[in-house]
Write a structure and sequence with these properties.
Blueprint (H helix, E strand, L loop, with lengths): L9 H7 L3 H17 L4 H14 L3 H13 L4 H9 L8 H16 L4 H10 L2 H23 L7 H7 L1 H4 L10
Helix pairs in contact: 3-4, 3-6, 3-8, 6-7, 6-8
Length: 175
């Protein structure tokens, strides 16, 4: 995962520094979500970006916009994540990933219909990683909102160079 020209999440780190034991435990958990998951990077970032969209967490959205692009999502796909699962351009699995996030956040769990789609593609470990990824990033979105975290200072500069960092591939012709 590249670190140059990527957000540093300093406001998150600064907030969690007030509780070192919790920070250590959460970073271990989050390390699995980022690096040890059985989901592909693309699947993970679809889930994370959908959590950010549903929770209206601009902090989480901008932190993971770069990670999502590094995972191979295009600008158009990132925009579709915010729109939701009903775009005909999503594969059935990707639509189910997005729908599962909506259901977990809004209903507390994944519906039988969505679960059946996911279970045709995922084994139990992947299903566990899906639930814990959505839950882990939902916790972060709640942290960001509750502590009223503001955008990190590096985000405006990175966004001003976004199209330099991610050239036209996958962008709409009008960009």
């Amino acid at each position: 995962m590249p670190t140059k020209d990527r957000p540093k999440a300093l406001n998150t780190l600064g907030t969690l520094a007030h509780h070192p034991d919790l920070a250590r435990a959460y970073f271990t958990f989050n390390g699995h979500l980022l690096l040890g998951t059985t989901l592909t990077e693309r699947q993970r970032e679809i889930v994370v970006m959908r959590v950010a969209a549903v929770r209206k967490s601009s902090y989480e959205w901008y932190q993971h916009l770069f990670v999502a692009r590094d995972a191979g999502l295009t600008d158009e796909e990132v925009g579709r994540i915010a729109y939701g699962p009903d775009s005909p351009l999503w594969s059935p699995l990707e639509a189910a990933l997005i729908r599962s996030v909506d259901e977990m956040i809004l209903d507390g769990g994944i519906s039988t219909a969505t679960w059946q789609v996911l279970a045709t593609e995922f084994d139990t470990r992947q299903l566990l990683d899906l639930v814990f990824t959505a839950g882990g990033y939902d916790i972060l979105a709640r942290l960001f909102k509750s502590f009223e975290l503001t955008m990190d200072d590096d985000i405006p500069d990175l966004m001003s160079r976004y199209h330099e960092l991610y050239p036209a591939q996958g962008r709409c012709a009008s960009d």
